[in-house]
Amino acid sequence: MVSLRLDGISARYGRRQVLGGISTPTFQGGQVIALLGPNAAGKSTLFRRIFGLLKGDGAVEVGGAQTGRPICYMPQDTGANAVLTVYESVLLARMQGRRLTVEDADLAQVEATLEDLGIPALSRRNIGDLSGGQRQLVGAAQALVQEPEILLMDEPTSALDLHRQIELLTIVRDLARGRKMLIVAALHDLGHALRFTDHAIVLRDGQMVACGPTGETITPDLLRDVYGVAARIEPCSKGMPQLIVEGVA
Amino acid sequence: MTAQPLPDKDSEGGRGFYRALVLRRQFILFGLTTALLLSFCVDLALGPANYALSEVVAALLRPGQVEDQVRVILWEIRMPVALMALIVGASLSVAGAQMQTILNNPLASPFTLGISAGASFGAALALAFGVVLIPAAIDYVVPINAFIMAMVTSFLIYALSLRRGVTIETIVLLGIAMVFIFNSLMALIQFFASQQAVAAVVFWTMGSLTKATWPKVWISAAVLAIELPLLARHGWALTAMRLGDAKAESMGVRTRRLRLEILVLVSLLSAIAVAFVGTIGFIGLVAPHVARMLLGEDQRFFLPGAALCGALLLSIGSVISKIVIPGTIIPIGIVTSLVGIPFFLFLILSRRATTW
């Protein structure tokens, strides 16, 4: 099973240090990890550093990988206006680094991924004509079609309606459990983090301020210190943790 | 869990749709090839002595069995010009297509980056003042000057784009700056040059296929033949570039390295083309857009499509340049702009589908 551990990793933009000394315990396939923190905390930078797009000190240790490219990164949606259908754009993600000819197995994987995400009906739409939420689902499809062992998702639900947010995160959690994938997702909705993730890494100003099981990590003290809000966490009638925000601290 | 299907008007999707799309594109490529062959034959048939298409086909397939006069006119005089139209059209279009792709800019072309302007300046130096950048046979002084200045421009942009913090927008702006610099230098040359030299410079900048010779055809064809497979092997990565750098990088594309490699390849391609025939601006800008409208941006179809569209447009331009005023060959650069741009506007305005 795949595993991921960060050992004192850092990153710089020019002379400016944007990420410093982040170390985590070893995360295993089958887990969903929440990457939390306010805006500009360094979440996207950490993803880019783990994925290898940024250089820096420290080590990203991946163990037990079955493939040569175990990590896949789903960046924040930036929109695109290429003359490509959704089907082609997902196939494109699948075919990177492979031969130019497409085989049935590749098409089958594209279709299965679109089905999993509930978007087969978008197949023939041009990617430039999609809404923000649709683009985000297509972005998830582009990542999942590569069959990664470790998936880094940068704010995967930011443009989705509530129904689709819960649906996507449920799919993500089920994929992690079923395929023994390790998923790290940057989230702003702490309620979703409490409900769908096993562990949380919390960043502020490029430093890690907390790391542990999500239910134990997200505390009123942390919310006040990191997000500047007064909040409490109480179990709902079904026993699930619920975040109640009282106001700005 | 599988998500609840997202409702959409276009409920048909999947493999059948994709296979139909591929088949349609193969059919379009076949159609373009057929049109190109036809245009090529018509181009050969037209001239001071007009021939029937059947005569042209006979001369092409069985050159030993036609009259010597016909064979000489078709093979020695018209063939290099007609072939040059195809090769230069394809080269400029492929160069423009990949510049638009790597710079994510619909206005990118060998003109935008100043490569054509650099070539014009190099040619003007030779034509106006007899400046020879590299000693060569008299026939090749102007093209070699043009080629050197085009490559100097490319490498200047290449070197500047290696600097930290240079974005793709900056590269386009650098190109535009080059265009203005070379245009000013051209104006300076024309100010000091003799009237006769100015006329030669102006004629060169109009672009003309009549400068074509067999050696020039072979050189241009060789560069194109070497570059097409080099570009094709990056097919998936180049298609991904159109989704933006962040998305392409997330798919494992090393965008910066690929952009620089492609920039070098297409600079060479366009420098060779403009050095031999002068500046034919319209093709490198518009032919890729026509290919994109017809075939989308999957490079497996877009790349050959761009080459075919460029070759076809320039070949048709060559035909028109011969028939507008009988007995006179109008410079091809003028024809392609006058005929091609209204056609391009018609395509853009008559289509509702995404064109960029």
Written account of the structure:
The complex is a heterodimer of chains A (249) and B (356). A 6-stranded mixed beta sheet of chain A has the order 7-8-9-5-10-11, sandwiched between helices. Chain A has helices at 43-51, 86-95, 104-116, 132-144, 162-179, 190-196, 214-217, 220-227, and strands at 3-7, 9-13, 16-22, 27-28, 32-36, 59-63, 71-74, 150-154, 182-186, 199-204, 207-213, 229-235, 241-248. Chain A is built from 8 helices and 13 strands. The longest helix of chain A is centred in the C-terminal third of the chain and has 18 residues, at 162-179. In chain A, helix 2 crosses helix 3 (104-116) and helix 2 (86-95) packs parallel to helix 4. Chain B is mostly helical and 356 residues long. The longest helix of chain B has 36 residues, at 68-103. Chain B is globular, with a radius of gyration of 22 Å. At the A-B interface, strand 7, helix 2, helix 3, helix 4 and helix 5 of A face helix 1, helix 9 and helix 10 of B.
